[in-house]
Specification:
By secondary structure, this protein is α+β, with helices and mostly antiparallel strands. Helices cover 46% and strands 12% of the residues. The radius of gyration is 10 Å and the shape is globular.
């Protein structure tokens, strides 16, 4: 379940719950998450692109 996975991600990575839901969904679908949200910086499976 994505909800349980998101809750675990939130605690483990100290991410806000909304961000954890996004990450858990990407991981469930074996997808790379592309973002400019600095909350995701240096997280496995995430491609962070710094805003200019």
């Amino acid at each position: 379940m994505i909800a349980i996975s998101a809750a675990k991600v939130s605690v483990e990575l100290k991410l806000p719950m909304a961000d954890s839901i996004i990450l858990a969904t990407a991981r469930t679908h074996n997808a790379t998450l592309w973002t400019q949200d600095s909350d995701f910086k240096n997280i496995e499976g995430v491609r962070y692109i710094e805003k200019r």
